[in-house]
Amino acid sequence: MSLKTEAQVVKASLDIVPTLIEHLEQDRIILLPMDTLYGLVVHGGRPKAIAALRALKQLGQEQPLTILTRGDRVREVAVLNASAERMISHFPCPVTMIVEANPQLNPEITQGFSTIFIACPDRFIYDLIGAIPFPLVCAGARVGTEPITHFDAAMRYFSDRVSLIVRGERSHYGRRGTLIDFTLESPTIMNFGPISVDDLRPLLPEIILPSHLMK
User: Fold this and answer.
1) For a tag site, which of 62, 106, 141, 158 has the least CB within 10 Å?
2) Taking a C-beta distance cutoff of 8 angstroms, is the pair 19, 110 a contact?
3) How far apart are CA 112 and CA 181, in angstroms?
4) Are 171 and 150 in contact (CB under 8 A)?
5) CA dist., res. 215 & res. 203, Å (int)
6) What is the pLDDT of residue 2?
C-alpha cells in the first residue's frame, strides 16, 4: 500500500521560481493563486504532465486547456490578429482569449483543434511567465462547481493531489475571466466575467455580444 504525500507549500513570490521549475520539469502538477481562481498548472512541453492534468480534472480530449502567456511570449504559442494584439497589450487582465494556435504547438495541448485559450489574469502570473522558460498550461481549480479561491480550500481539496501549492491572497474576482473569441469576424464575448463589454469598448470598439448574452 502506498501512502499519499502532502503537497509542499511555498509563499507567492518570484523567489520560488527555481522551485516551481524543478517541480514542473518532473511532470508534476502545481497549484497557483490567481486573481480569477486558483489554477492547476503543468509544463506545456511535457505530454505526461498534460495527461496527468487532464486526468486530475477528468477532462475529455475535446475539452480545452489554457496557456498562461503574455505579449512578449505569445508568439511561442499563438498567432494573433490586430484585435488580439490590442487586447494582449493590456495583460495582465482577467480576460481569457480564444486565438489561433501556433502550428508548432504541442499537439497534446491542441488535441487537433486550430485554436487555443490564453490568459494572464494578474501581475504575479505575468512575472512568472517572464521568469519560466517554457509554456505553462493551466486549468481552473474546482471541486464540482465550486471554484477554489483561497488557500485553505486549496489545501483541503488538493494537498494530496498536487506536488506543490503556492500560498497567496484570496482570489480578487473569485470567478473565471471574461471569455472573448478573437477567431471570429469581430471579437465576441462568449461568457461574462469581471470585465464587461462596456469596459472593453474603448479598447475594442468592434467587440460584440452574441444574441444569447444580450439582455
Assistant:
1) 62
2) no
3) 18
4) yes
5) 22
6) 45
Ranges of the chain whose pLDDT falls below 70: 1-4, 60-62, 211-215
CA-angle at 91, arms to 154 and 25, nearest 5°: 50
Tell me, what DSSP letter sits at residue 174? Answer: -
Omega before residue 202 within 30° of 0, cis? no
Contacts of 108 (CB under 8 A, 6+ apart): 47, 50, 51
Q: What is the pLDDT of residues 111-154, one digit of tens each?
A: 888 999 999 999 999 999 999 999 999 999 999 889 999 999 99
**Would you say 171 and 33 are in contact if contact means Cβ atoms under 8 Å apart?**
yes
What integer pLDDT is reported at residue 74 of this predicted model?
Answer: 97
Q: Measure the CA–CA gap between 64 and 98, rounded to whole angstroms.
A: 10
| The residue to which cell 511567465 is assigned | 129
pTM equals 0.93
SS3 per-residue string spanning 105-148 = CCHHHHCCCCEEEEEECCHHHHHHHHHCCCCEEEEECEECCEEC
pLDDT, position 61: 64
